[in-house]
Design brief:
The protein is α+β, with helices and mostly antiparallel strands. The protein is built from 5 helices and 8 strands. It has a single domain, classed as Alpha-Beta Plaits, CATH 3.30.70.20. 20% of the residues lie in helices and 28% in strands. The protein has a two-stranded antiparallel ribbon. The protein has a two-stranded antiparallel ribbon with strand order 2-3. A hairpin with a 5-residue loop joins strand 4 and strand 5.
């Protein structure tokens, strides 16, 4: 079976936040819910000159997702192809998954009382449609990699 992994080249990101806007529109996320978040680091002086960098926070579909283990309702599962999915019907809003995510990739919708993560774009990507967040990125910093199962670690 083909497996997938998400990679982000943070060196290419220049902080335009077009991915944030596109993801918010695609997923109809409410105010305050960020499924992709671009964080700023800087400015700081490095070797006598000012540096500024950006970091894209979104679900990376971990090999061993801590969010899955933390969820007492088993609302988060890892598919055979490596994609981590969230069943919103099972989520009780306890936020245990948010506490353990290494990428701050899970948001909480106060109105619905649910944890949320961006997964629809990845599954659409696999089916051949292109999610708006990577398309909107001028520098193509977000990539979905197809990995042969014999190379999967």
């Amino acid at each position: 079976m083909t497996k997938y992994a998400l990679t982000i080249d943070h060196e290419l990101c220049w902080g335009c936040k077009a991915c944030e806007v596109a993801c918010k529109q695609e997923n109809n996320a409410k105010d305050g819910v960020k499924l992709i978040a671009v964080t700023e680091n800087g400015p700081k002086e490095i070797n006598g000159k000012l540096e500024f960098s950006f970091h894209i926070n979104m679900c990376r579909h971990c090999d061993e997702p801590p969010c899955m283990d933390a969820c007492p309702e088993e609302a988060i599962k890892k598919r055979e192809d490596g994609i981590v999915v969230m069943d919103y019907d099972l989520c009780t809003g306890c936020q245990a998954c948010m506490d353990v995510c290494h990428y701050d990739a899970i948001a909480f919708d106060e109105d619905q009382g649910l944890a949320q993560s961006v997964i629809s774009a990845i599954t659409g990507w696999i089916k051949g449609s292109f999610p708006p967040a990577p398309i909107m990125c001028v520098w193509l910093t977000v990539f979905l990699l197809r990995i042969k199962s014999d190379l999967w670690i």
